[in-house]
Each structure stands twice: as structure tokens, then as C-alpha cells.
Design brief:
This protein has 188 residues and is mostly beta strands. Helices cover 14% and strands 39% of the residues. It contains two helices and twelve strands; from the N terminus they run αβββββββαβββββ. It has helices spanning 2-22, 108-112, and strands at residues 29-37, 42-50, 58-64, 70-74, 77-82, 88-92, 101-102, 115-119, 131-139, 142-150, 173-174, 182-187. Strands 1, 2, 3, 4, 5, 6, 7, 8, 9, 10, 11 and 12 form a twelve-stranded antiparallel sheet that branches. The radius of gyration is 19 Å and the shape is globular. The model is unreliable at 7-22 (pLDDT under 50).
Length: 188
């Protein structure tokens, strides 16, 4: 019986190592930032540039494509928005200094650099309580983000702990499937 236990333990260890090896790596270099809408359209709205990994972290930089994102003057402030008849989705740059890096299993700062809010085309002003943060997961071809609800009014004042992302998992709520016009953000 002891021999069987050793064999099972060794097999479990090999399977665990195989799962770790099979996990997709973080992207490197400049990647397209693509919004996938409810009707299946894919729109390249910008780029994310990843540096070379160093010390288990990878630096990144987000750049929105101003030719695609249209200017909307809302609530006395200009926002870059992806207009659509069902819903307008506006980019909200994270306003405070941050580490600007990600690691395997830790994509929080990337998620915080891709904040948005949504509004109906007929609505007046920015409704920051209609915030969207995209929860990213690695895939073999890049990263895929699904929308979650956050209240962007929370970042109206500087965070007490500037090195910690303000929106943890308890500060986010999943949207019902199909609730948002932008269904996914892809980095590929």
C-alpha cells in the first residue's frame, strides 16, 4: 500500500507541474486592445505595450486610439468614448501614480488602467457609478477581459494605499451576460 501512495503522490506532483507549465505566459511587446461588442463586432481601440519580464513582473503601457475613440464632453470633462446606438462606453484613465506592472496571476494594475463607464446615448453627463472594470484572464492567444461593475466615484480622491489597486474582488460585481454593449476586451 505504501508503494501505491508514493506512486500516486509522484503522479499528482507531475500533473501539478504540467498544469503550471501549460498556463499561458503574459504577452510581450505591443499588442492590440480590441473591444468585442454584443453584435460580434471587433474594434481595435488602442494598444497595450508589455516590457520584458523582470523579477517576476512585467511593465505595461496603455495607449488609446483617438481616431476610433470619439470625444464626448460630459460633466464638464472630456472623455474618449466608443459610440454605439445601444450604449456609449467611455474610457476613464486611472488618475494616480501606480506601479504599472503585472505578474502571472496578478493583472490588477492592467485592469485599473482600462476603466470605463457606460451611458445611454440620450443620457446627459457622465454617470461614474456606471463604471466598468474588465477582469482579465490569460488565454493561449493573449488576455481576455470580461466586464464587471464598479463605482468610479471611489477614485475621485487619492487612495490611502497608492501601491494597492482600489478595486479588489469584493468591490466588483459581475454583470448579467449580455448586459453591456462591450462584452469583452481582448489583448492580442
Amino acid at each position: 500500500m505504501g508503494h501505491d501512495r508514493q506512486t500516486l503522490t509522484a503522479l499528482a506532483a507531475v500533473l501539478c507541474m504540467g498544469a503550471a507549465v501549460a498556463q499561458p505566459a503574459l504577452p510581450e511587446g505591443e499588442k492590440s486592445l480590441v473591444a468585442v461588442t454584443r453584435d460580434g463586432q471587433r474594434t481595435r481601440i488602442g494598444t497595450v505595450t508589455f516590457g520584458a519580464p523582470s523579477g517576476g513582473r512585467t511593465r505595461f503601457q496603455v495607449k488609446m486610439d483617438h481616431a476610433v475613440m470619439r470625444d464626448h464632453f460630459l460633466s464638464m470633462r472630456e472623455f474618449k468614448c466608443l459610440p454605439a446606438a445601444p450604449e456609449i462606453t467611455c474610457f476613464v484613465p486611472y488618475p494616480y501614480p501606480h506601479p504599472g506592472s503585472v505578474g502571472a496571476g496578478d493583472l490588477a494594475w492592467l485592469e485599473h488602467n482600462l476603466l470605463f463607464f457606460f451611458k445611454q446615448p440620450a443620457d446627459f453627463g457622465a454617470k461614474l457609478w456606471n463604471g466598468i472594470i474588465f477582469k482579465f484572464a490569460p488565454t493561449p492567444t493573449g488576455l481576455v477581459g470580461t466586464p464587471q461593475a464598479v463605482d468610479l466615484n471611489r477614485i475621485g480622491v487619492p487612495p490611502e494605499k497608492p501601491d494597492e489597486p482600489p478595486y479588489g474582488r469584493l468591490d466588483r460585481d459581475d454583470f448579467a451576460p449580455g448586459a453591456r454593449w462591450v462584452q469583452e476586451l481582448r489583448i492580442e
